[in-house]
Structure formats: structure tokens, C-alpha cells
Amino acid sequence: MQSINRRKFLGSSIAAGGLLGAGAAIPAWARGGNMNGATIRQGFDEVSGRNIDLTIARGPVTVQGRRGMGVAVNGSVPGPLVRLKEGAAVNLNVHNALDEDSSIHWHGLLVPFQFDGVPGVSFPGIKPGQTFTYEMPALRQAGTYWWHSHSGLQEQAGHYGPIIVDPAGPDPVQADYDYVMLLSEFTPMHPHTIMAKLKKGEAYFNYQQRTLTDGYPLTGEERRMWAEMRMMPTDISDVSGSTYTYLANGHGPKEGLEYLFARGKRVRIRVINGSAMTFFNVRIPGMKFWVVAADGLNVRPVEVEEFQIGTAETYDIVVEPTGEAHTIVAESMDRSGMALATLASRPGARAPVPALRDPPLLTMADMGMNHGGGDMAGMDPGMDHSAMGHGTEPSGEMSMSGMDMRDTSLLPPDVKVGPGVDMVAMNPVDRMGDPGIGLDKVPHKVLTYKDLVALEPNDDLRTPSRQMEIHLTGNMERYMWSFDGKKFSAVSDEPIRFAYNERVRIKLVNDTMMAHPIHLHGHFFELVNGAPADRQPQKHTVIVQPGGSAQFDLTADEPGDWAFHCHLLYHMHAGMFQIVTVANRAGQPDVKRVGESG
Predict the structure, then answer these.
(1) With 50 as the cut, is the pLDDT of residue 443 above it?
(2) DSSP code, position 214
(3) Burial of 454 by CB count in 10 Å (0-12 exposed, 13-18 middle, 19+ buried)?
(4) Which helix H or strand E contains 268, and what residues bound it?
């Protein structure tokens, strides 16, 4: 994307003392790279400067009494907070002490493609025992970002950490305290074991399945409908709290992560979803707060009481705590568990922890059957069911006869039809105004993409010269995931191509019943969310709701090969991945792809 112009700022004051839960006094990077059997620490230190050293190693990790093996960077999970400065260059020396290849991708940072950190796309990867130096030129942005492995499934094992890029001038966000809340998961199960179980049965980890006598509000006809489709209305998350312990800064919900504050002061919390597979619903019960940045870039403050954060997204919030303590709740979208932290006016202060809310159910809208012409989050008893190819029984129950969610004739010709596509959204409408699965009926304000407005005008106001439609496809029973019906192994030699500086409108259509966070490397794009054209919010990751669509405008002005994928780790690993190739500037040599010679 074009350079992100920094703004005329209002200024801020940041409290001394840095991040709580940052770990022991001895710096992690001073402890040696191979861990030598030492237990991985929870929480993270901070690294900064012109040259930064990061060491990847494996070791044992324990969370709330559960033990497993993890991949740590500089001895901790999460790895260290990498603190950078807008306009400054930095060399990041990454040492691989593992017995397998590794890598680091700098999620959201605008860097030359050869330092983007995706093995096989932008560089070969880092071999065991080797060091790779990421040479970052003067950074063109400020804000909240994160880093993680792009090698195999290492990210699930702990190979991730936060990034803060401090602005070159004053910060527009006024706060007295500045904290990071990095959300993730821990499991003692090996990531490849999880993948194998998902391939054998995609509902393996779903302990919230329906029974004949359960309390879910479904009629008999609705239950028959779900059975005929071989789907479950409770199939919200592939991996749930039965397997995961949800973490905040590496700490489980019983491990007492605190953020100290003084009453009357403003607290900024940089919320990063560094999980492998989990959407979180974040709230501070009884408190309103302001969302002030999305994916690192400033937005006009939006007052809300809750927001859903998809895997790989970041949101900065500002809160003015008034009580002795307030609980920060990050509840998994399927409501099978939560990560917790406490805003505390003194060490040890605590507020009540709310019980998990009832699990949500998928709806007609999630099937791509939203014929209401707008955002619909549930079954509307008054809708015209005859328009959907089905009617109502004499009892008043909905009849789904005649409905065929596998009618592949509805798909455009460039979508490959085969065993990898088991569902087609019959009427995928724009769901930018949807707060997320399960949040449509809560009694308070929840953030939606339509609330986001860029704080400052965008640079490129050209009308897109062409449109592109990409379908998110899958077969949930076989755990097959793809773009346009083609998994990555089948499309690696057919990248999505853009001319340099081309302006394109991209429509993502979700033909599945799962929400997908779609991430484009190397660029920011502008959400087509109803904001004025010059204030469309820029993001690097967008959630596409089940059975719905989302659109964004892209200026392709970062030459090179870039990964484009679903950021649910096991979906990406199963094939929902592509390469985007942006041509070089006119008159400049072409960018060589990884593996090319000459």
C-alpha cells in the first residue's frame, strides 16, 4: 500500500513501568537458545534498538497445571514485545535453534517482500542452526501489530509475539497507561495431532453437539434440516475450550494477569488476537470504552461495550476505569472458555468474573439464505419462506423441502466444483454490519465493521479499474478448505496477479458456514463499509461471515509475491491459501519468485 501518512497529533503520556506480566528480571535472550530443558516462561520481555536478536527454541511449558512442549522465542511464550520506531530502520537477527526449519512473519508491517517471512513464497525459510537477518528499512507506519511463525504449525505451539511501532511524532491516542493484551491458546496436544483429528472428523473437538433432549431452541423440522445437511448449528469453532486453555499474555484465566491503574486515568489496551483458531468476544462488564485503532491504524473513536476480534486482527481500546477493579473478559466465540485479565487499582484487587454465556447457534443467515436484503442474524418468523424455495408446515414449523445448499450451478465458472465444495451460499449478502456470531441479540452496543471510519483521509481515491470475486470454499466433513474450490497445492503456479499500482475492488464470498479471517500480506486494503470513500478504514485482515460477503478496495503498489490466506491455522494448512503477485514498477527488473534462477 502507499506510505501511511502520519497525522497532526494531540499527544499522549505513557506511564512508566511498561507491561505487567513481562516475566523474570533476567532477560530471556541472555539465557541461551536451546533451553537445555528449562521451562518456558509465561509472559514476555521487551526488545528494541537498531539490532535485535531473537532465538527460536523448544522446551517444556506449563499452564494452570497442564504440561506440554512449546516453541519459545527468547525463552518465553509469547515471545518478546518487539518495540520499533516509525521512520527508523532495524535489523532483526533470527536464530533457529530448532531441529526443523522456521521463520517469522511480521504481521501487518509494510516491508520488502523478501523480508516478509513466508517460506516458499518470499524466502526459503531458516534452516536449523542458521541465522537470518530481516533488514527492515525506515518503517512507514505506527501502531499495534504482531509477529508469528509461518512454518508448519509452530504458531500453535507458542511461536508468536507482539509488535508496537511508536509514532515519529505525538500519538493521537491520549492515555496515561499503555498495555498489551495478546490473546492466544495453549494445548498439550501436538498441533499435528489436532490436524489429524480434524481430518478424521471435523466435529471431534465440538463438545456442544445437539441431543434429542438438549435445551437448544430448535423445532423438530429445524433439527431434521440440520441432519439432512450433515451440519450442526453449534459448529462454531473447530477447536474449543475442551482442548484449549485460553491465554492472555501467556497466562491462563486462573493465573491472575493484572494491569495496574490509578483512578481518573485513561488506560490504552492493545488487544491482539494471536491465536491459532479462536475468535474472541472482548468486554469489560459494566464498562463502556472506545475503539481507537483497528489493525494498527487509527480510527475515529467508537464507544462500545463489546467487540469480536478474529484471529490475526488487532484493536486498540481506551477505557477510563472507575472502580477498584474491572475484569477484562475475552470469551471464545463458541463460549467454551475465556481468557481473563484484571484492571486493578492495587495489586491483588479483583472484580467478579461472569459466567460463560449460552453457546450461540448458527442461523439462516449463516447458511447464505438471508433474503431479507440486509444484515439478518436469526430466523425471522415473519419472513417470506416461499421466496426461499420452501414453505411452512401446518404446525407453523419451517419446511426446508426443495432447498439445495449443494447447488453448484450457482457458482461462477472459475470456481472448481468437486469434493472440496460441499456447500454454496444461496444468497450471500454483505454482512459488514454483523457484530459476529452470537452477538446480534446482546443488550448493549457491539462493534461492527460499519462503525469504523479512518481518522485521516486515505491517499488513493481512484475508482477501482476492475472487480474480482473470490469464493471461500470448503467441505467441512472432509476438512477441506480452499479459495475458488482449489486448495493451495493445486494453485501454487497460478497466483492472483495485479499490475503495479492497480486499483481493484475485491469481493470475498463465503460459501461455508464458518467465519474466516482473511489476511493479505504486504498491504493494507480499504473496507467498503459505507464510510465516505476518503475515510474507508484500512485493514490487513477481514472477517467474512458465514454465508455472506465482504468487499475491499486494494491499491497493489507493493511489488513481489505475497501470501493471501485464511488465518485460521488449520484452514490455511488444509489449503485455504494463495499467492498474490504484484508486478514491479514500470521499467524496473521483475521480482524473482522463490526458487527461480538467473
Answers:
(1) yes
(2) -
(3) buried
(4) strand 267-273
User: In what order do the strands lie in the sheet containing 297-304?
Assistant: 245-248, 177-186, 267-273, 314-319, 289-294, 297-304
CA 236 – CA 358 distance, rounded (Å): 13
Is residue 138 predicted with pLDDT exceeding 60?
yes
d(CA 229, CA 169): 56
Contact 593, 561 (CB under 8 A): yes
C-alpha distances out from residue 142 to 13, 32, 94, Å = 16, 31, 22
Sign of CA dihedral 52, 53, 58, 61: negative
3-state helix, strand, coil in the chain (%, to 5): 10, 35, 55
Burial class for 384, CB neighbours closer than 10 Å (0-12, 13-18, 19+): exposed
Task: Tell me: pLDDT of 237 over 80.
Answer: yes
CA–CA separation, 307 vs 299, rounded Å?
15
Nearest Cα to Cα of residue 62 among 40, 83, 78: 40
Element counts in the chain: helices (H) and strands (E): 4, 33
Asked if 431 and 368 touch (Cβ cutoff 8 Å), the reply is no
Single-letter amino acid, residue 263: R
Those residues whose C-beta lies under 8 Å from the C-beta of residue 214, and which sit 6 or more positions away, are: none
Predicted local distance difference test score (pLDDT) of residue 225: 57
What grid cell was written down for 569?
Answer: 491455522
Q: Per-residue confidence at 533, pLDDT binned at 50, 70, 90?
A: very high
The H-or-E segment that residue 195 falls in is helix 191-200
C-alpha 76: how far from chain center: 22
326: CB partners within 8 A, 6+ apart: 284, 285, 286, 287, 319, 342, 343, 351
Q: Assign 555 a pLDDT band (cuts: 50, 70, 90).
A: very high
- How long a stretch of residues is the chain? 598
Give mean pLDDT, residues 258-279.
98
* Distance between CA atoms of residues 122 and 124, nearest Å: 7
- Res 403 pLDDT > 70: no
- Beta-bridge partner residues of 309: 280
> Is the separation of the CB atoms in 163 and 73 below 8 Å?
no
Q: How far separated are the first and last CA of the chain, in Å rounded?
A: 28
State the Cα–Cα distance between residues 431 and 454, nearest whole angstrom: 19
How far apart, in whole angstroms, are the C-alpha atoms of residue 529 and residue 346?
41
The Cα–Cα gap between 236 and 205 comes to: 11
Q: Which cell numbers hold the place of 49? A: 534498538
Higher-pLDDT residue of 27, 54: 54
As given in the structure block, the three cell numbers for residue 227 are 441432519
Q: Which residue has the higher pLDDT, 476 or 331?
A: 331
- What is the spatial distance between Cα 186 and Cα 345, in angstroms, rounded to a whole number? 29
